[in-house]
Specification:
Elements: H1 6-9, H2 14-17, E1 19-20, E2 23-24, H3 30-40, H4 52-65, H5 73-98, E3 101-105, E4 112-115, H6 119-131, E5 135-138, E6 141-143, H7 149-158, H8 166-182, H9 192-209, E7 224-233, E8 239-243, H10 245-248, E9 262-268, E10 297-303, H11 305-315, E11 320-322, E12 327-334, E13 336-337, H12 343-347, E14 357-363, H13 366-376, E15 388-389, E16 396-401, H14 403-414
Antiparallel strand pairs: 1-2, 3-4, 3-5, 5-6, 7-8, 7-9, 7-11, 9-10, 12-13, 12-14, 14-16, 15-16
The chain binds zinc ion.
Zinc ion (ZN) binds near residues 375, 383, 390 and 393.
Length: about 425
């Protein structure tokens, strides 16, 4: 190989300088590029309890990432190595979880336990027990577990350490990439953008494994804050969303005493310009169906602006926070497919409205649940029709059949469901969910 002098090793790589805050195109100064690239992963710190081995590997990765400015190949190395740390983190977390003892279940026999002091011990037992068709005991479940990445992923989900439906699809993709890195079959080059995203995803995954969700995270987001909002609409189809303070603040010059508007008070994700979590479907709100993207809670209405203000002044409701991942929806199919419904609302339906086929689906968003049920009508799309994770999308099927059957499947996952009966109110204009009775 060619021996390069120190000065050359210290010189910025032209390829790395071509990446700037606006994508490819302009060329950055080396100092700016060094700072810009490090900032991409500067804020993804690990939670306090993370195992030392995983932490050391992750910090090393962040250190090396900075050198990508001098050598573009570093980004590929960082992206690849991040995928190996993914498995290391699962192993380290497994060792903490099992606290030195793992148990296997063989049918028709008592569980067998082993003492383990390292992950090599775990693998040795898992390997042998898999050949005897024994399953690893995880809480009240028993799962196939061969000690490899696939088994570790199943264990982490069964133990309840990882959550979210869309994140599960990303875990699946990371596992495929990890296998590609461990057994490369071709040439690939990572960009600073791709490498930074892999490092950020890895930080989110490690933190979630150790019980900490990521504020504003992409994979395992912390619960979102909801505020009190007023939705209103008039007969010509105009809709508005305002914070409750716009009506009640002492110094508010609320001159919108417009009688043709109807008002609702809800708890909703506030609109913040540029936020990843704005609810672009807020104007689809419907008390009967989950037509907004994030959970929106009906509190009062409809009524005039003065009535809404009086109610707010008297009740003074407050914001809260919600976890929107892993929600359970019921989708009714009767002549056509209807929008997803909350199980609590479905529980309050009169018998006459329980007709048709019902599907209980776990998903992060109502549109995910709806798209899955629609897709599962056509076998060629590959959507699962039986209970379990759908291989074609990020939904999990819990059950389907009559209203009672689907409802029971939902209740098995959620526990007892309290029926709610809300006044039937919706905003009138709808682009996304026009097909509602
Ligand atoms: Zn599906």
């Amino acid at each position: 190989m060619e021996i390069r002098p120190l000065a050359a090793l210290r010189t910025a790589d032209d390829l790395s300088l071509a990446f700037n805050p606006y994508g490819l195109g302009g060329r950055m100064e080396p100092e700016d590029a060094a700072e810009f690239q490090q900032r991409q992963i500067a804020d993804c710190d690990l939670a306090a309890g993370v195992a030392p081995g995983t932490r050391d590997s992750f910090e090393r990765l962040r250190t090396v990432f900075a050198y990508g400015v001098l050598c573009y190949d570093v980004y590929t190395v960082v992206g690849d190595h991040a995928l190996l740390i993914y498995e290391q983190a699962l192993r380290d977390r497994f060792m903490e979880w099992c606290a030195g003892t793992i148990a296997f279940r063989v049918s028709q026999a008592a569980d067998v336990s082993y003492t383990v002091t390292s992950y090599d011990d775990v693998k040795k037992h898992a390997d042998r027990m898999t050949r005897r068709r024994a399953k690893l005991v995880v809480g009240t479940d028993a799962i196939e577990f061969n000690g490899m990445l696939h088994g570790l992923r199943r264990w982490a989900r069964t133990a309840g350490l990882l959550r979210g439906r869309r994140s599960r699809a990303v875990e699946e993709a990371l596992a495929k990439l990890r296998n590609h890195v461990a057994h490369p079959s071709g040439h690939h080059v990572d960009t600073p953008v791709g490498a930074a995203r892999t490092v950020r995803d890895l930080a989110e995954l490690i933190n979630q494994l150790w019980g900490q969700a990521t504020p504003d995270g992409r994979l395992y987001p912390a619960p979102l804050h909801r505020e009190i909002a007023v939705l209103s609409w008039n007969t010509s189809g105009r809709t508005r969303m305002e914070p409750a303070g716009a009506l009640t603040a002492p110094d508010s010059l609320d001159d919108q005493e417009d009688d043709e508007y109807q008002h609702l008070v809800v708890r909703a994700i506030p609109f913040i310009p540029g936020s990843r979590w704005n609810d672009e479907h807020w104007a689809e709100f419907d008390t009967r169906y989950e037509t907004t993207r994030f959970p929106t809670e009906y509190l009062w209405g409809p009524g005039t602006r003065a009535e809404a203000r009086a109610w707010l002044d008297h009740e003074r409701p407050e914001g809260d926070s919600v976890d929107f991942t892993d929600r359970i929806f019921l989708v009714q199919e009767h002549e056509r497919l209807l929008p997803p419904m909350r199980p609590a609302v479905a529980a309050g339906l009169p018998d006459a409205e329980r007709i048709g086929v019902w599907h209980a689906v776990r998903a992060d968003f109502p549109d995910d649940a709806f798209a899955h049920v629609r897709g599962s009508g056509d076998r060629s799309t590959g959507h699962a029709r039986r209970p379990g994770d759908c291989p074609a999308c990020s939904a999990e099927i819990l059950g389907s059949g009559t209203h009672d059957e689907a409802f029971r499947a939902a209740a098995t996952a959620l526990g007892p469901i309290q029926a709610v009966r809300l006044p039937s109110v919706r905003l009138p204009s709808s682009l996304l969910w026009p097909d509602r009775p």
